[in-house]
Design goal:
This protein has 6 helices and 7 strands, in the order βαββαββααβαβα. With about 160 residues, the protein is an alpha/beta fold. The protein has one domain: Rossmann fold (3-Layer(aba) Sandwich), CATH 3.40.50.360. The chain starts with a strand and ends with a helix. It binds flavin mononucleotide. Flavin mononucleotide binds next to α1, α2 and β6.
């Protein structure tokens, strides 16, 4: 596979776990984008949904990533109201010019709602996806691994 990296956001840890699994399959380095908004409690949850559906780009802390020689980027983020997760939106907007001409794959973690709107929302706002999968956090570990393997083979 081309030179690549994994960029993820998480609120409650599922996407960190998926990122580690994807790293094991690809050997790509993993980078976490930290969400700086307090998402705790019911108000945090409601505000997350509000920001996701209104296209907000929320404040983040990001690691330094050299994108120059990277061909493929695997994004991993939680589904919030079937939309692009606001912290990843911030990162994608901030680096838009450096990201043109890269290949993108998206792994979305959720609670089981269908993935079509998640994929469409991303592609409408950002880039076409070479590979996409949505993985319910309730899925058995073996199924998660199988879904990630299939995803990685589509990225190759
Ligand atoms: C504001 C908000 C909206 C959500 N919307 C959806 C949704 O539309 N469909 C779904 O299946 N899960 C939805 N979820 C559940 C998360 O996508 C799911 O818990 C995910 O696995 C969390 O990943 P994380 O632990 O990496 O943050 C939502 C969660 C939050 C906080």
């Amino acid at each position: 596979m081309a030179k690549g990296l994994i960029v993820f956001v998480t609120r409650s840890g599922n996407c960190r776990h998926l990122a580690a699994m994807a790293a094991q399959e690809t050997g790509f380095q993993v980078h976490e984008i930290e969400d700086l908004v307090n998402r705790k409690g019911i108000f945090g949850w409601l505000y997350a949904g509000f920001q996701a559906t209104t296209g907000a780009a929320s404040p983040i802390r990001e690691p330094e990533i050299d994108l120059r020689d990277v061909d493929s980027i695997i994004l991993i983020y939680p589904v919030w109201a079937s939309s692009v997760c606001p912290p990843i939106r911030t990162w994608l907007k901030r680096h838009h010019n450096e990201l043109i001409n890269k290949q993108f794959g998206l792994i979305a973690s959720n609670l089981g709602s269908p993935g079509e709107r998640v994929q469409a929302a991303f592609e409408r706002e950002f880039f076409p996806l070479k590979a996409f999968t949505v993985i319910s956090e309730k899925e058995a570990e073996q199924n998660k691994q199988d879904l990630i393997r299939t995803f990685v083979s589509q990225m190759a």
